[in-house]
Amino acid sequence: MKDTIPAVPVERHFEQEGFGNRKLIRPLINHSNHSLPSNSSPGHSVSGLGERRERSERGTERSNGARKSAPPEQTNAENFYFQKQMQSKTPMVIVMLDDEEVHGIIEWYDKTCIKVNRIGAPNLMIYKPSIKYMYKEAEGRK
């Protein structure tokens, strides 16, 4: 048969000597408490007013610890606006950069231009960068 060693608890001298009476040190978690400046936390600068986060850390933290997501690259608001005006055939006033006004109905649009149908005048294709602003003709200039 095998030699068996009895299960006897072994004394742990290292716990009694140095580890048993150590004080637990916790980092400062609440960043809104500026009354206790700390020199030991990395990435923080201490001034006479208390703790301040570095510029690179601002905006990257949220209350739940997650980063703020970037806004979407395209909101499609322009597309929705043009679609609505095209479907309802709303008479529009397009004001150009030189303050010339073009009255008409938007027939179609793409990334760079819009086509405006006019009554009693030739239809126009207008480049978007040359448009100052536009509004519905029924609303008048405000």
Describe the overall structure.
With 142 residues, this protein is of the alpha+beta class. It folds into two domains: 9-68, no CATH class; 77-136, Roll (SH3 type barrels), CATH 2.30.30. The protein has helices at residues 13-19, 77-88; strands spanning 44-47, 50-53, 91-96, 101-109, 113-117, 124-127, 131-136. The chain has a five-stranded antiparallel β-sheet. Strands 1-2 form a two-stranded antiparallel ribbon. Strand 1 and strand 2 (50-53) form a beta hairpin. The N and C termini lie far apart (102 Å). 5% of the residues are buried. The model is unreliable at 44-48 (pLDDT under 50).
Q: Summed up, what is this model?
A:
This protein folds into two domains: 9-68, no CATH class; 77-136, Roll (SH3 type barrels), CATH 2.30.30.100. The protein is 13% helix and 27% strand. The protein starts with 12 loop residues before the first helix and ends in a 6-residue tail after the last strand.
Write out key terms for the chains shown.
142 residues, two-stranded antiparallel ribbon, five-stranded antiparallel sheet, alpha+beta, SH3 type barrels
